Amino acid sequence: MDKKLSKAQRTRQFIIETTAPIFNVKGYEGTSMSDITEATGLTKGSIYGNFENKEEVALAAFDHNYGIIKKAITEEIARCRSYQEKLMVYANVYHSFNGHSEFIKGGCPILNTAVEADDTNPPLRGKAASAIQSWRNAIMNLIKAGAASGEFKSDIDLERTALSVIALIEGGVMLSKVTHNHANLDQVLKTVAIIINELKA
């Protein structure tokens, strides 16, 4: 935790980092204030002194969990040379949700939040939707840059390809989680690799 932050900021960050895994495992409805106070060791008064309500904690927790994924992807993409390798980073990072090296407890926060908050919590659903849109744009930009460099074909349907990759990855994570069969995600990610390989000029 950044020591340059004020005491209030450090407390707020502590609450977010401590509760983020809980929200990602139990969901918004399944996480109680008792869960939050027990995990942090703080009183309800301390929690509400830093956040207006439980929903505000959940929104911040989502941002924290999603930020972990974005950081991992950004750092890995920076190490890649080809655009094909850069696109495969998404499959490789999400492969870590297969249960063997899960770096976020509870799995993909986008999927978890989207499923739970679909019709019940517009602010949380909005967070998930925004994350999907950002992901779509990032993939489209990589494909566009790959096409401009001559590595990819020039007539690729950017949005269709990006959405297909996202749907496959998230669907694979969901199948793996529901069936407790991590091989399902492995199989889906092979299809993602095929799609990316077919982009090559």
TrEMBL record:
Q: Which InterPro entries would you find in this protein's record?
A: Homeodomain-like_sf, HTH_TetR, Tet_transcr_reg_TetR-rel_C_sf, TetR_C
Q: Any idea where the HTH tetR-type domain is?
A: 9-69
UniProt keyword list: DNA-binding, Transcription, Transcription regulation
Q: What are the recorded GO MF terms, alphabetically?
A: DNA binding
DNA-binding region coordinates: 32-51
Name assigned to this protein: TetR/AcrR family transcriptional regulator
Organism, by scientific name, is Mucilaginibacter myungsuensis
Which lineage?
Bacteria, Pseudomonadati, Bacteroidota, Sphingobacteriia, Sphingobacteriales
